Amino acid sequence: MSYFQKVMLPRIIFTIASALVILAYFTNIPDLRAISSELTSWGVVIATVAVAIGTFSLLRVHWDKVSKRSKGYSYSAWTIFVMLATIVIGQAFGLNSPAYGFIFNYWYGPLYSAVYCLIAAYSLSAAYRGFRIKNVASVVLTLAFLLIMLNEAPVVGISWPIFGPLATWINRVPLASGMRVVLIGGAIGLLALVVRIMSGREKTPLGIGGET
Amino acid sequence: MIASGRTFQFAFLLLSLGVLFVLLRMGMKGKTFSLRKLPVFDSMDQAVGRATETGRPVMFNLGTYPGSEGTPEAINAYAYLGHVSRLCARYGTRLIATCFSVPAFVVMQGVVRESFAAEGKSDKYVAEDVMYLSDQAGAWGAAVWGIMERDRIAAHFFFDPMVAMALGVLETAQRVGAIQFSGSAYMWRLSDMAVTSDYLLVGEEIYAGAAYLTKEPSQMAVIVGQDIIKWISIAMTLVGALVFAAGSDAVLKLIVL
What we know:
The complex is a heterodimer of chains A (212) and B (257).
Chain A: H1 3-26, H2 30-67, H3 73-93, H4 98-130, H5 136-152, H6 154-159, H7 163-198
Chain B: H1 7-28, H2 39-54, E1 58-62, H3 72-91, E2 95-99, H4 102-118, E3 130-132, H5 137-151, E4 155-159, H6 166-175, E5 179-184, H7 190-196, E6 199-202, H8 204-212, H9 217-245, H10 250-255
């Protein structure tokens, strides 16, 4: 692949597409808005193609493992079997069929819920680490957390109404200010990134290795 | 021609782009800017070095949802992946990179392969170690936890952790004793990262960091441009607050122009 195809062409496409979408947002020219809308919908097409690529990639990786009898190849064989079975059943009986529903309701659903349940335990251990009082900042963090949490408990909200306004103030003033700082900073950083890509300084989105 | 209520926004966008392009031009012409040293990036080197010494792998996870692989967050993550890949290639350390978005997977494969090639270590590039695991957060999370536990990773890099399983991934990396780097420009998952990571990049730091790592004068100049726009924004906010407190809504009217 030539340098033009690999670097210049994506840069040109990125610059033109970005400029069109940005101009469509700031102006009220109907044609420009139609083009912008069309460009945005192309994302859906790309995502659909991506599913096919993903399927082939998954098949290739696991087939390689099975054919080479790599460590844990039996899991790869099972993955391929389940994937193909799901595709075949979906195609043969339809997406609303009991057979296809069985896979989702009795295999996928319970497995997904089981994995999700672990997040509760992880939240506890993360909270323990986060609210250990080591310095002034952690004292402030813990107090704010306690105030917000106590306010969420109905009995506290009714018995001590002072928690309500305090918790609301924490949410609306310090928390909202902090969030806006991060968002505004992020937006400025985003502009800088656009400039770096347009000028060809940033090439990693094209799958070209990083610089050190 | 300009949509109603967006004139000021458009003018500010043009001003910001102007500042950035001028600084970029200055950088490209050779003007150098000194930036304060950011310890987090030296620590990335040390974390990969530690992984090399202990013979354990480095893991890079991209938490971008399918359909969001072109977001600025993800694009920055590719830049960090490039840096980490080059370090791993240089030190001969195994790098495991995963994601749960196919387009991101294709880009990640390219970044890691090219980074190994840039270090003259193409033969050390292992295609199987760049993985697309699933497009379902639960399945992806479970697979990543398993890899972390089995391979006892020594360093973990996690960017754009939008996925619901992010906390589980971060906590598992903590449990296996990995040095952890994470970053996001959004508030989403920031608290999870703050309590579990050794090094955290927040907001604009994540964008500035990707440029900082290149050490190129032009990219450094863009970071300076970022700071100038930030100062302009702070000044506007202060003036707006003062004018509004004084009883005038002139600034408010200007913003919604």
